[in-house]
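Z., the sequence and structure:
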Amino acid sequence: MKQTIHMIATLTIIGSLVGALLSYVAGWAAPKIEINKKKDTEEAIYKVQPEAKRFEKLNIKTIEVYKVYDDSGKALGYAMPYEGNGFQGKIRLMFGIKNDLKELTGLEILEQSETPGLGAKIVDDEFRGQFLKLITQPLIEWVKGSKPEKENQIQTITGATISSKAVVAILNDGIKKLSESAVTGGEK
């Protein structure tokens, strides 16, 4: 009995120390993670809107969206981080779109946990390049096993159709949310 109590006490002390250490590390790392996430977001804005010289975050409650401007202060469009489900987890991306919401200006994948060598190819320039100047109305579509024939289509990645389709679904949903808020007067 004495040995059991000793083991429980030892494990309790070790567990408490490890818990306290983990809490300290999490508290120390959280602001640094937030700073890096903000830096990554800012860099992605300029990648998806290459002509932009400055941006401002819009005060829209339901989504995070940035209005981008050129040197002269002319509005070029929007940059919007958005996320949804992929094959193995969340996919967080940033897309750039013109003011009229009818043409994409770029796509960056900010976070993903798709299958290495297959679904993870969504970060490759070859896949992301298909979204440059892609028409968004009607909705973006995907084709499998053939070249896109319409201005609103992209070709899926062979062996990673689900990840490719997920990116398209995330984009369509994000554009819809942006349209419902920014274009219809949701900017506050």
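Residues 63 and 122 are 23 Å apart (CA to CA). The chain has a mean pLDDT of 89.

Let me know what you think.
H.
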